[in-house]
Amino acid sequence: MMREKIIHFNPIIPKLEGVAVKSSQTRLESYVDHYLHGNQEPDLTKIIYEVEYHDNGLVEGCKGGLFLGISHVMPGTVGNEFYMTKGHIHREKDTGEYYWGMKGKGLLLIVFKDNTYKLEDVTEGSIHYIPGNTSHRLINTGTEKLSVGACWLSESGHDYVNCHFPVRVFKKGEKTIEVSHCTT
């Protein structure tokens, strides 16, 4: 008996493929206020990042399952601020997540409850554990698309409102990255 292959990982691109793969695109206009100078950007329809994930039939919030996806953050800046994901914290606060670098170069910003943070370099082959009770986002500091795999519990949920990011990451010159503390 042959079983239908519903999902496949293409490591060359990297990309998820198959009938059970869903995707979404996030344009600058949907979170322009996350950037210091977002309102000065002339083209708010730019795609900043895309997410593809395996639609395994589970509903977010149900216990006992796993989700698998890939985030693709485009290269570029808004003003001098690098493209980044909206970032989130899990609704089920104590649930963690794994990220792994597939292609490109960037940073993973993890912010703890006490407002301390760490930045981890994301490169091809890097693996990152994101503990529960943390806000986290990806930042593309490179010149090509940053592709990062992710696996998280189905009960985790995503909260894009009650997360906080106390630093911004800017391009300064050709090879310099500036991390700047902010209050918003």
Quick structural gist:
This protein is mainly beta and 184 residues long. It has strands spanning 8-10, 15-17, 21-27, 47-54, 66-73, 77-78, 81-82, 97-103, 106-111, 117-122, 127-130, 135-140, 146-153, 167-172, 176-181. It has a single domain, classed as Sandwich (Jelly Rolls), CATH 2.60.120.10.
Topology:
Elements: E1 8-10, E2 15-17, E3 21-27, E4 47-54, E5 66-73, E6 77-78, E7 81-82, E8 97-103, E9 106-111, E10 117-122, E11 127-130, E12 135-140, E13 146-153, E14 167-172, E15 176-181
Antiparallel strand pairs: 1-2, 3-4, 4-5, 5-13, 6-7, 8-11, 8-13, 9-10, 9-12, 14-15
Percentage of residues in DSSP E strands: 35-45%
**Elements, N to C (H/E):** EEEEEEEEEEEEEEE
Question: Low-confidence runs (pLDDT<50, min 5 residues)?
Answer: none
- The spatial strand order of the largest sheet comes to 3-4-5-13-8-11
CATH class: Mainly Beta
In total, how many domains does the architecture comprise?
A: 1
The CATH architecture term is Sandwich
Which term fits the overall shape?
A: globular
CATH topology: Jelly Rolls
Distance between the termini: 57 Å
Separate helix tally = 0
Characterize the biggest β-sheet: 6 strands, antiparallel
Rg from Cα: 17 Å
- Mean pLDDT across all amino acids: 93
InterPro entries: G6P_isomerase_prok, RmlC-like_jellyroll, RmlC_Cupin_sf
Family: Belongs to the archaeal-type GPI family.
Domain Glucose-6-phosphate isomerase prokaryote: 64-161
Keywords: Gluconeogenesis, Glycolysis
